[in-house]
User: Fold TATA-binding protein interacting (TIP20) domain-containing protein from Astatotilapia calliptera.
Amino acid sequence: MSSVSYHISNLLEKMTSTDKDFRFMATNDLMLELQKDSIKLDEDSERRVVTMLLKLLEDKNGEVQNLAVKCLAPLVSKVKEPQVETMVDVLCSNMTSDKEQLRDISSMGLKTVIAELPLTSSGLTLTGSVCKKITSQLIGAMGKHDDVSVQLEALDILSDMLGRLSGALVSFHSSLLSSLLPQLTSPRMAVRKRSILALGHLVPCCSPALFSQLTEHLMKELAKGPPTSMTRTYIQCLATISRQGGHRVGEHLEKLIPMVVKFTGVEDDELREYCFQAFEAFIRRCPKEMSPHIATVTQLCLKYMTFDPNYNYDDNEEEDEDRMDIDDELEEDDEYSDDDDMSWKVRRSSIKCLEALISTRLDLLLSFYSSICPALLARFKEREENVRADVFTAFSTLLRQTRVASTGSRLVPATVKALHRQLKEKSIKFRQGCFCLLTELAHTVPGALEEHIPALIPGIVFSLTDKSTLSTMRIDALSFFNVLLLSHPPQAFQPHMQVLLPPVIACIEDTFYKITSEALLVIQHLVKVMRPQGQAGGFDPKPFVKEVFSVTMKRLKATDIDQEVKERAISCMGHIVCHLGDHLRAEVQAVLAIFLERLKNEITRLTAVRTITLIAASPLKIDMSPILPEALSVLGSFLRKNQRALKLGTLACLTALVTHHAASIKPAALEPVLSELPTLVDESDMHVSQVSITLLTGMAKAYPSTLAKISSSVLPGVFRLIHSPLLQGSTLEAILEYLQALVLSKTSNLSYSQLLKSLMEPFHRSQSSADGSIVHRQSYHSVAHCVAALSSASPKETPGTVAGFIQQVKNPGSPEAARVLALLCLGEVGRKGSLGGSKEVQGVILEAFSSTSEEVKTAASCALGSMAVGCLSDYLPFLLKEISAQPRRQYLLLHSLKEVIRSSSLSPHVESVWALLFQNCECQEEGTRNLVAECLGKLTLVNPAALLPRLKQQLKTGSPLARSTVVTAIKFTIVDHPAPIDSLLKDCIGDFLKTLQDEDINVRRIALVMFNSAAHNKPSLIRGLLGRVLPHLYKETQIRKDLIREVEMGPFKHTVDDGLDVRKAAFECMYSLLDSCLEGLDILQFLDHVEEGLKDHYDIRMLTFLMLARLVSLCPAAVLQRLDRLVEPLKATVTTKVKAGSVKQEFEKQEELRRSAMRAVAALLAVPEVERSPSMAEFANQIKTSTDMASIYQSIKGGEGGGIGATESMDMS
Assistant:
């Protein structure tokens, strides 16, 4: 006998002991053994363990029984199928026993076994056979009408089993339905409720025929007009199957809705509640099918949300009624309240139904303002606490939807009027609801509460000072006050400072740290209100300064307080010194000394750095000289720390000190800082480099003497940065300013010529250098900008430099890199206007256009555009003349013209440029045509009112090529920031989108590209046109046989699909619409086309997999409706294998396609309800059991930046 069997035998022997403690310990030890992964039982041990545990279920001691049940869980996976079946048989027969305790423990045992049955394919046979055994026994137990408790247990276990293993019970679904339906007529309410629950678990996985059978049965029973109690059950069952079965109820709604509407008229509150719950489920699960019934349901909700027959709301209460009257009224409420009154349930369910409507139907938002919004505002007086909370929730949902739709200022006055008196209610829950709602309102319509602030302040003060108020209520009030201060101008609060400050100051003294912390934040914003920077105000803060200072100082000095309070106290005091420092005089030095201490403390140092930055930049010119030497030394040490936020904060602080307090800082005090700066200028962190260079620029201006010391250590890093391919934007701007500061400092070893030489050096040696890749294209442009900046700082040196560049371009022996750089430098120097109209330069540029090198030609094109920007009158006529005269150089010259249009005001020359562009808009070369279109688009932005109608006119007159150019030009007028053209474009973009119906396929493709640009950058332009545009968009997603042709390539035939590019453009538009115009889409219709795309060409499938993953996160309910149709193409892609003899690219392509499909599958599997679909459950199982698919799935779940979220974006450039 093995050691395991011997040990188990010993335990089993102890379990037969008469001592209950022995039995308990032995069972516990057995459970620990069974939980070990390594344990293997022989057949005899399995049988004996199962027999013993089943015997222990009948033990007299309850604790032993419970342990025996727990042992069943690990045992299921350790024993073979016959033993599991034995366990199930015994448990099922015990469950129908007459002994109540044995019944209870056996049903617990069955639930434990069900929870442990394996879901993997290897264990499915065991699971299936066990489930069948349990199901047949349970169906028998349900028929045993004489004992209700047996029925209840059987229904409970059945619900558990269907919830977890419904897929394994498909063959039993029909008999389960037959046995569950009679239970709906049981005289016992508990039996009926559990039957409904079990039916709810059955619905997601059952066949459509069975679902229809269930729904029709319910409709047939309801049509008979059963007693009210039975009607309640059937309606409740309808709501449950709608919630669980989702879209499948949709096809029965035409018959169901009139029935449910009829039952809302029955005088029974619970029945009405269930009717509204059913409506809510229909609205959430079948939004499209509910559209015809929305008006009916809305009317019913509006009628019953005020249904309160036992109470008379007095609408004529005076606005200025004092608090006592309100208290009396609340006492009266109690007299009216009736324990048997269930009308609140009707009101609550109708309001929840309205909330479902608001959250699912963004398209009806405008009509909700006139219908639902006033009704909700009127219900703010609701007497029942829970119902009023739901009214607030529904109104908050309306506000959130309003924020999405960017309308809603009309809601403000009525909302404030309905809420402001309720801020003084006794009920904490009411007040919290009011504050949440007002916060939502402030976020939805920023600044709109300004004129209502006098009405809101008494409510805020009441919640802060009321003795009975809970701490959470105070925090909510302070939090709302904070939002109010941030979103409204200071002038709105200044008149009320006398009333507002005392309660907030009292909150700072509170013992609960959260309240203190919130109050300090409010004081920080109130200090800004007292004296806003940059505004000359008539408000005198003097009376309040001492009080605010002393209470904050007390918290600032304390060291035994919470971290959050410490940080808020530092920050608050910083704002006090920054805004009101001139009223504090002597106290400022004491505060600065404390800040220095906090700067040395690791926990508070970051907050202290930010606060010192704030004070240093204060317009009050606070004297910081006493702490500067020591502070600079500490700040210097922070630059060595490996904490990025601290490093950036320190650099910003040093820049503020050097800029505003240079006179108080001795150059020697900067030594600790200077020694740390060289290592920070590095391309590994561009932002830190930028802030470091800004600091160096400040030092160069304030302390030229320090430059000589650090130039040798810092400059190599700066030049490395300039030659880096990563340099651009604000970091480049910072470097330009630094170089100009160096030249202007007149330091001997940092002269113009030396800096110029260092900049140019890599370009002169790059050809001969062993490492030719040292110079990146971006660094040419960076160096050109730097040269122009140096020239503008040293105008005397410029002519010599320009002459040198011209020689360089002319000299055929110069390396290509040096000629390209010389041209770009000439361009940038010319942009600053330092060249004049030099004929020699024009000749050099024209000569460069004839170069054999593409790089030189492109640089010449860039340079000519830049020069023309700097001296329009000299270069633009020359440029236009050349475009007309030189058709072969047109592409390069148009690039120059594009630069001119982009960077300068062309007002006097618009007509001549416009005419020239239209002469070339029908060019055969697509690249040139696109450039003409871009120039036209950018030119239209110069004077949209005059030029946009002319573009529109061209649509009617031009050839297909001209139309495509005009539509592309419109694409370039759509910019991603607000522009004067927007309103004009919105009015006429519909005319340009009519080209989606053009007979020319290329024009249609370009129209789709333009539509995509609008959807991506400025969706407001096209939201109103979706109804007209979408049918044409969807039409372009279809494969057209007449556009597919066969091309013979030698012995091979190759299929060419001329419609592929148009389809790709259409699917890209669909993807953009998901992000920007979701509320305007009929998602189910949208999914039809996505489904077609899943079977299309490689490129389109890649797109539709992305779309599917996105749709899952945006509207899972709709995707679940179409799940069975979507699974097949996904499965087909994931399981496809490439033919053995295929080329490497084919393998890579297919692998990428499979990964993309698997991402969509992973997104689907993340939705909890997905595995209720039999086809999806089967597919998920297939993935788990296939090594190949499982590895792809795991790599997507675990790798690639943390799963699906990272893959949902698409390059829209």
About this structure: Residues 316-337, 766-773, 1200-1213 have pLDDT under 50 and may be disordered. The longest strand covers residues 1044-1049. The longest helix spans residues 1144-1165.
